[in-house]
Amino acid sequence: MITYWHNPRCSKSRAGLALLEERGAGVSVRRYLEDAPTEAELRAVLAQLNVAPIEMMRAGEARFKALGLTRDSDPEALIAAMAANPILIERPIGVTEGSAAIGRPPENLLSLL
């Protein structure tokens, strides 16, 4: 089962979901803007992705700049910002029991199958 952090307003997120469904993947959709992940959940996904927090963020979002964040901000501050402002989380993200993938491009999600 893939837990899919989804924003239905995002074309890449819709494309990734369609791709997984076309491949017959079991998908549980989590609208992360409405059901924001906790800091602990973010840390777990970061560990599965094996990336720094900034690599899981939408640094071009106006909220990123409004919060005074930079690419050099403390990783813990970035995690806290994502938990408090889920719009900052890159989308989409697919998460399984043992791995995760950022769906940019959507084909990256195929590694979860």
TrEMBL record:
It comes from the Bacteria. It catalyses: [glutaredoxin]-dithiol + arsenate + glutathione + H(+) = glutathionyl-S-S-[glutaredoxin] + arsenite + H2O. GO terms for molecular function: arsenate reductase (glutaredoxin) activity. InterPro entries: Arsenate_reductase, Arsenate_reductase-like, Thioredoxin-like_sf. Its EC number is 1.20.4.1. It holds the Pfam family ArsC. This is Arsenate reductase. Keywords: Oxidoreductase. The lineage of its organism: Bacteria, Pseudomonadati, Pseudomonadota, Alphaproteobacteria, Rhodobacterales. Belongs to the ArsC family.
